[in-house]
Design a protein that fits this description.
The chain is mainly α. The chain contains twelve helices and three strands; from the N terminus they run αααααααααααβαββ. The protein has a three-stranded mixed sheet with strand order 1-2-3. α3 crosses α5 and α7 crosses α9.
């Protein structure tokens, strides 16, 4: 069941913000999906949006930021400290984190990166920032598994298993060509078992 934004809800939220009733505000959003939170923020004045972003846990607000319009997100980031942005970034996959940091000035980028505690994440973000935004490298998170469409099915399965051991979760498999330029998220037509192990990987995805 989807959440419905009502006038009553917005009036209650506004009352809580004006009264600095932070526990009540947190309670309103506690079980709410981040996409619903983003829709609510679209209905509020900018100062109230910043108030809520600063108040709620970064585990939720990091996802909310990615749902917001880029112009609104940029304004919000301008009102957050380097430490606050770092806390948001630390909750994101590396590609989304790079998107956020890429919207900052070079000076702010350095300040935010210096506040990120996970050195491995910093390296991943720095690598992604070197790619053009629309290139395969710029689009893919470091958490994703990547294979070549011209490899055999057997080689791809082995490679996927090896890469999966190095990431915390795998939610997509990306396919590149020999030049590592063409990017596509793999949607499999049939089970791997229906193909010979020496078949080209490109024959089993669309």
């Amino acid at each position: 069941m989807s959440f419905e934004i009502t006038t009553e809800f917005l009036e209650k939220l506004t009352s809580y913000i004006e009264g600095s009733k932070n526990k009540s505000i947190i309670g309103l959003f506690e079980e709410m999906h981040y996409a619903d939170v983003a829709e609510i923020l679209d209905e509020l004045s900018f100062d109230k949006v910043v108030y809520i972003i600063k108040l709620l846990d970064s585990e939720k607000t990091s996802a909310v930021l990615m749902e917001l319009d880029e112009d609104i997100r940029e304004k919000i980031l301008q009102n957050l400290s380097a430490k606050e942005i770092a806390e948001e970034v630390e909750e994101l996959d590396s590609d989304d984190a790079a998107d956020i940091i890429g919207e900052l000035s070079e000076e702010r980028q350095e300040a935010v990166m210096s506040q990120i505690e996970d050195e491995e994440q910093v390296k991943e973000i720095e690598e992604l920032l070197t790619y053009d935004e629309d290139s395969a490298g710029g689009l893919m998170a470091k958490e994703l598994v990547k294979v070549n469409e011209n490899w055999s099915v057997l080689k791809c399965v082995r490679e996927m298993r090896m890469q999966a051991e190095k990431v915390t979760r795998v939610h997509s498999i990306y396919v590149v060509d020999d030049l590592r330029q063409t990017e596509r998220e793999a949607l499999f037509k049939r089970s791997f078992n229906n193909f010979y192990k020496n078949s080209y990987f490109r024959s089993i995805y669309s």
